[in-house]
Amino acid sequence: MAQPRTAPVTPEAFDPETFHVVPARTFEDLRVGEVFRAPSRTLTDAHAAAFQTVSADNHPVHYDAEWARRHGHPAPVVHGLQVLAFTAPGATLFPHFIGDVFISFLELSCAFLAEVHSGDTLYPALTITGLEPRGDDGVVTTAATLHNQRGELVLSGQHKYLLRRR
C-alpha cells in the first residue's frame, strides 16, 4: 500500500536571539515569594575530588576518612564553598526568567547548618524575599536554601542581584 504524500515542511527562519527556555521577564514582573529551584544533585567522591583540585583546599577533613572519623565526622566533609555553589543563580532557572535584565550578583551570605558528605543529594532553591527599585535598576533579594535527602536544611543564606528596570 502506498503512503500518502505530504507537502514538504519548510523550516521557518531561526533566530538564536529569540530562543529562550522560558519567556523572559523584567524586574517589574517578579514577585516576592516566587521560588526558583534547581534540579537535585547527588554528590559523589569524584565531585569532591574535582572541587579539592580546583580550590586547592587540602585540609584532610575533606579527603581523609580516618582523619575525619578521629575528629568526630562520620565521613569526609564536602567543601563548604562547593555546597554554597549549588545555590548559584545559574544552577536554577532564575537567569532564564530574567533574561537580559541581569546586571550583577551584588552579595551573598550563608550559614552552614549541617555537614554534607559524598552520597548526599542536595535540593537548592532561591525564594524572592525583596524587590527594591533603585532608579533605572532594582535589587532582588533571595533566600537561598539547600536541603538534603533527609529533609534537613544544610545551608541557609541570602543573595542580592542587580537587575535593569524598564
The general outline is extended
CATH topology: Thiol Ester Dehydrase, Chain A
The mean pLDDT is 92
Q: What is the makeup of the main sheet? A: 6 strands, antiparallel
CATH fourth-tier homologous superfamily? Hotdog Thioesterase
Q: What is the succession of H and E elements?
A: EEHHHHEEEE
Total number of beta strands: 6
Task: Report on the architecture of this protein.
The chain is 17% helix and 33% strand. By secondary structure, it is of the alpha+beta class. It has one domain: Hotdog Thioesterase (Thiol Ester Dehydrase, Chain A), CATH 3.10.129. Strands 1, 2, 3, 4, 5 and 6 form a 6-stranded antiparallel β-sheet that branches. The longest helix has 11 residues. The model has no long low-confidence stretch (mean pLDDT 92).
Q: In brief, what are we looking at here?
A:
The chain is α+β, with helices and mostly antiparallel strands. The protein has 4 helices and 6 strands, in the order ββααααββββ.
Descriptive key words:
4 helices, 6 strands, alpha+beta, six-stranded antiparallel beta sheet, 166 residues, Thiol Ester Dehydrase, Chain A
Give the helices and strands, then pairings.
Layout: E1 35-37, E2 41-42, H1 45-55, H2 65-70, H3 80-85, H4 94-98, E3 102-112, E4 121-134, E5 137-148, E6 153-164
